[in-house]
Fold this protein.
Amino acid sequence: MTDPRHTFELWGHEEAENVFRTALASGRLHHAWLISGPAGIGKATLAFRLARLLLNGEDPDSPAGRRITAATHGDLLEISRAVDEKKGRLRGEITAADVRPVQSFLHHTATEGGWRVVIVDGAEFLNRFAANALLKILEEPPPQAILLLTTASPGKLLPTIRSRCRALALSPVSDQDMRAILPDVSEDVLARAHGSPGRALFLAQDRDGAIAGFVAEILAGKALTAEMLPLIDRIARETEGFALLCDLLGEGLAERARSAARRGDLLLADSSARQCSELDTLKRQTDGFNLDKAQAIRQAVERAAGM
């Protein structure tokens, strides 16, 4: 997907945008907004679109528009997970040090005499200290300042943060819009993306369907065999292979838990939900400590195939 800062077209979220525009036009714009929805659905794209609206940068060729694109606009601050230079990937959390610049930014006079806008992209990654620091800002917001928080997991945020934000929950993008956005992506992948363009592109990285097929076998109860090891090694070597496997396996376990609960099979529902949680922990530990991905995949498969 294109960097949200460089994206000027928004698909499927006109209703959410209109809610914000109406509040702005009324003169009663809430100081903090929580934009929620699945990963890849367009939360950050909407946040930057709203920032452009506030900062007179909707025209990408205008002076303000160019500054926003170039990340040089003095009245826009983006907070997100920083890159761990040693590991070459995003850190697992947003720290208090990442949030600290917000306080001084919001208490300076706007460079262009209007709004000051802070985007916190991925607010679910705020650690405890960062969350508390942000909460203090939300409790005493300065005038002419707007905070736009995005999250794929609003339940992971402090209730006190959620309560101080106006909610904007994004709905899945329609099938028609998904096909227009991603004409080269297969119908099967679009169906499994659940209305999220970013997720569709993520799933499309499994070009030959090998990972999806492997996960389907595991969820069907097939035990780990020696014949599977070359495929596991291949998945571990691929850039997004481990993440794809964990995503598909986690989705399958979550659906198993939901289906079992609907049937009244609470034992299976509880077991599947626990496996899903264990898989999430395994993924975070593997990524966080740079553990052997092939070994982690084998552990995930052994746990899931035990059903």
The two ends are 36 Å apart (CA to CA). The mean pLDDT is 94. The chain is about 50% helix and 10% strand.
